[in-house]
Amino acid sequence: MEALLFLLVVGILVLWFVLNGRLRTTRRERDRLLREKAELTKAKEELARENILLETHHLKFQMQPHALNNILSELKASSKKLERGMGALSSTLEYILYKGQMNLVKVADEVAFVRHYIQLHEMFVVDLDAVQLDESGVDHGSRYFEQECIPHLVTGYLIENAFKHGDRKHPDFLRIKLKLNEKFFQVHVANRIPSKPREGIGGLGLFNMKKRMDLLMPDRWRYDTHQEGEVYHAILTIEFTP
Q1: pTM recorded for the entire structure
Q2: 157 lies in a domain?
């Protein structure tokens, strides 16, 4: 009886050691799989971020020659006015080319770009008062004013579209209103349109803008358009995270 009890105890101990060994092996295997899963997830996230950066760079590089081509076409047609616009041209090109290495820029830099871009295009507008920029809604004390928080050239899409398709001979051709507070940045472009507007308002520039916004700021932006009589409104709002 004692021998049987001894064998039973030994059997239980052997079984316990076997099961315990298998449990440790299973745990090690589980931990290894979890580590591999975490590494794969991290690699996947890094790849996704790299793909986003590559795509935004590609879209931005499409925008840069697109904008430059429009500017140079205007200058070629109005070469006598070139000297007056050299300062604005220099500042605009510097912002497009050198700041273009970054995806996000300061609101302060984008606002300055809008000023120079308007000055450049004023060479091709009959009445200088036909273009008005309202910055009164920009809070220079906002923490976002000097923070890199909005996509580079994001205002340029809307303004370029207005100059391209609007009625530049109208005395009240273009109104641009910028707003910045602790919740959002907004650019509101309202331009007069010809009695017979050209087809295809928007095109490559606005298409790229929407793709860049989706990539850089998903679910944090809105783009609205509407027409009131002869005035076309385009409003882009970028919301900041709390």
Answers
A1: 0.67
A2: yes
